[in-house]
Design goal:
Structural class: alpha+beta
Radius of gyration: 13 Å
Strand content: 25-35%
CATH class: Alpha Beta
Number of domains: 1
CATH superfamily: RelE-like
Strand order of the largest sheet: 1-5-4-3-2
CATH architecture: 2-Layer Sandwich
CATH topology: YaeB-like fold
């Protein structure tokens, strides 16, 4: 089982959703945490950053040291994943790696 850690921005987005969509996303993240990958739709976005698809919602995350880090979440309104969301996820991933490396050293 993988641990789950949320950054503030996706947590606020998640909390702003209606109960039905929050429940769907929570179920998908639980399946991800349980490593039950056949129940969810995952896509590689860039390098270690992955996308979890739940209806029209997307959760960008990475997995480091047995923890799923929820980097950003948004409602997808176009065919392509918005560049600003990918860039935000990359920026947060870089910050995350710095923090992890500080703790290891």
């Amino acid at each position: 089982m993988l641990n789950i850690s949320w950054f503030e921005r996706p947590r606020e987005f998640f909390d702003s959703l209606d109960n039905e969509n929050r429940h769907k996303i929570r179920e998908a993240i639980t399946a991800l945490s349980d490593e039950n990958f056949e129940q969810i739709y995952l896509k590689e976005v860039r390098g270690p950053i992955k996308e979890l698809r739940v209806s029209s919602y997307r959760v960008l995350f990475c997995i480091e040291y047995s923890t799923v880090y929820i980097l950003t979440a948004f409602q997808k309104k176009t065919v392509k994943t918005p560049r600003n969301e990918v860039k935000m996820a990359q920026k947060l991933y870089a910050l995350l790696l710095k923090e992890i490396n500080k703790k290891i050293i």
